[in-house]
Amino acid sequence: MNNVDKIFAATDNCVDFADKYFEYLTSVLTQINRSEVAKFAEILLDARERGASIYFMGNGGSAATASHFANDIAIGTRSFEKPFRVVSLCDNQAVLTAIGNDNGYENIFYEQLAVLLQEGDVVIGISASGNSENLIRGIDYANENGATTIGLTAFDGGKLRKNAQYSVHIPTVKGEYGPAEDGHMILDHLIGNYLMRVIK
Hints:
With 200 residues, the chain is of the alpha/beta class. The protein has two domains: 30 residues, no CATH class; 166 residues, Glucose-6-phosphate isomerase like protein, domain 1 (Rossmann fold). It is built from nine helices and five strands, in the order H-H-H-E-H-E-H-H-E-H-E-H-E-H. Strand 4, helix 8 and strand 5 form a beta-alpha-beta unit. Helix 6 packs parallel to helix 7. The longest helix has 22 residues. The protein is globular.
């Protein structure tokens, strides 16, 4: 039984569940390695300086987070003269369905990177489990072709944490998708708010 299940079992109304959920989420957030967060920001700032592209990818809720990251960093920073060149590889439905239908869902990120990626770019995979085959193929391709790779992970980190060159890990128990994805979205807003201020 993971911690969210335990919280539910120990409470009998939504107010109490909310109190305990927020309490647990706070404990998770305090355990995130701040040096990992700082390195993440440093890599993004370096990519901006070099004019390199930054690619986000994820599945399900993490796909939505990838899109949110792309918006908040590319547009939210208001850095139009020297932009963060950020793209979510989750957003083109025609491309995703074409690759998925013709060559398999496991290739939806790899094949986009095979077209778009240049040496020196940054590729970021977002996953709670860290074991989605399409993310691993994308990260491995990026590693083999001169990109910097980052995994935003949770649970035990899975293959993504091992294969990516850098990671920011949300320390949650397996199956705790809510707190894991909460942590990734907080990273989005933390990083976005930091970048938009540090570049001014």
